[in-house]
Amino acid sequence: MTAAIQVNAVEKSFGNVQIIRDLNLSVAKGERHAIIGPNGAGKSTTFNLISGHIKPTSGEIRLNGEVTSGLRPFEINRRGLSRSFQVTNVFARMTVWENVRCAVLWATGHRYAFWKNVDSLPEVKQRTAQILDDIHLSHRRDVPAGLLTYAEQRELEIGITIAGGASVIMLDEPTAGMSHAETERAVALIRRLTEGRTLVIVEHDMSVVFGLADRISVLVYGHIIASGTPEEIRGNPKVKEAYLGEEVD
Amino acid sequence: MTDAPTPSLAAAKQEPGGVLGFYGVWLLAAIALVVLPLIFSSGGSLTSFCLIGIAIIFALSYNILLGQTGLLSFGHAVQYGLGGFLAVHVMNAGANHNWPIPLPVIPLVGGIGGMAFALLVGWVMTKRAGTVFAMISLGIGELVASSSLILRSVFGGESGITTDRTSLMPMFGWTFGPQIQVYYLIAFWVLVSAIAMYALTRTPLGRICNAVRDNPERVEFIGYDPHVVRYLAYMFAGFFAGIAGGLTAINFEIANSAYLGATQSGLVLFSAFIGGTAYFFGPILGAILVTYLQLGLTSVTSVWQLYFGVIFIGIVMFAPGGIAGILMKHRPLIRAGTLGTVIPSYLVAVIPTLAFALGIILTIETVARFSGGDVINLLGIPFVATAPTTWAAAAVLVVGGFLVARITWRRVAEAWDRAATVARDRGYLA
Ligand SMILES: Nc1ncnc2c1ncn2[C@@H]1O[C@H](COP(=O)(O)OP(=O)(O)O)[C@@H](O)[C@H]1O
Ligand SMILES: [Mg+2]
After folding, report:
1. Does the predicted model carry a pTM greater than 0.80?
2. pLDDT above 70 as % of chain B
């Protein structure tokens, strides 16, 4: 079976600083894959590369077998990959409802339509309402996104990411800055909403990572030093030495 | 407070009578357009109404760019002017060859002209938003405006190209010679264009335009190419600007290079901004005000552009949401029933603010007319520009007016804060 995401020997330099070195990553379809690693290791850069936000200096990225390195983000999104951002990235002046609805429009085939009334598209309305319900923001539907609390914005960020129904979901530190209770709620949400899809998640909270992920990749200095099941990662001496230290045991 | 709705419920409540209210507004607008010239029937007001109608379409078309898509254009008059020129050429050709084109469809020709130009140059222009787009729009504006003086056969040089609106095929027995018939033609297009532009904001494309305005980067990750979105918005803006240009050509029976120029581009930016770009109706208010100011000020002062500048700076600094922004800020207060608590502070602020404004006017006019030694007539009081008493009066009004007005403005702000807090507590979002 072709992998959902296949990264082959990707390198990325900013100027003459090499950030990503010989990156190889394979995420199987339907898998929940966590990427862990210290700050500045290149996790967000990896997300940017896979989602088309930046182009690799060399190497190749495939989505469901098709080469996507070199494509624009919207082209990759249309092929079934959707990502969230570590720093909240929503449509601040638009309401919560409009934020989610915009993320639904392309996927429901309405594209650049200027001859349809957006308020009378039943499947759009239904799907938007469903997503709002899923992310527990129905009661805030008419509030401009810029006025939401931090935790609410993080939930909206997830809502926008999953709204298009992409088969591959990438979440960059979705729980960063959340309280313990908020994190638990968000993880339950992620678990439920990505059911039956492929998930790639960057997460710092090790209990979340080991509870959620089918497989884990460890990124250190732009290179994946280990990739495997949670048990394999726990027992990997290289990982212990480079990153996890004592905290896993 | 016990009977107040819970905050979340009140905030999430739908507008009352959505559909009815929607059609009601346009029906009222249609009735108003029909009866306006019956109430104000003088030739002068009819002329003003025609100009205002055209300015409304033009300002709304500009807001497709600025307010809806976040594109700041310094050259929107290009599409307006080219629409006007194409309209004039088609009118003349139609008259010469006896084409069966009635005058009422000519604005559509203007629209096609504006859109065709946007189609041609828009793809390159809209690659980037922000400063890049603003600069290119300025450049294209200058380019076309200067070409219009060189390409005489198309643009008629300095004098422009004239036409005769009565020379086309009559429709329903209307020749469109009398201004009142032109008024109804313009009114018809104002209504149709405004409804069409409003409807555009309610389409998938219209919503995505807003998303591109707010965050073009994120739009790329929900399947949309912001470049295509901007390009489409630019074409629609060009289309409606062209309609306005076509109507101007009909109204004045001429198209000349001034239609395309930087002054015209500046004026439409000014109208949209003063009216308020965040609300659909904002540019309508702006177009009405600016057209009236232009007509009114040019007859009483030679330095009317200076007043435009002062007003513009004032709006940018103190009310960046424009008139519509100021009005809409009051909505939660009206709903919460706390508007009454701020009105007295407004009334108190009016007198010193007016004194301050009069002082500024007197200062401007004194400087403008100093060398001529003219007499300034302000509120029926004659002031001699060269007299030291006039200077003293101006200084007292400006300084004294400002010092007193500043205190009353603070009162307004305090009263406002109290009322807004109460409104928020009652669940109405400001
Ligand atoms: N656009 C960029 N230009 C230059 N350096 C960058 C850029 N994006 C990321 N970096 C650098 O790449 C390194 C990895 O960053 P990042 O991928 O954000 O790490 P993290 O693993 O914490 O998400 C950091 O040192 C960062 O400064
Ligand atoms: Mg990161």
Report:
1. yes
2. 95
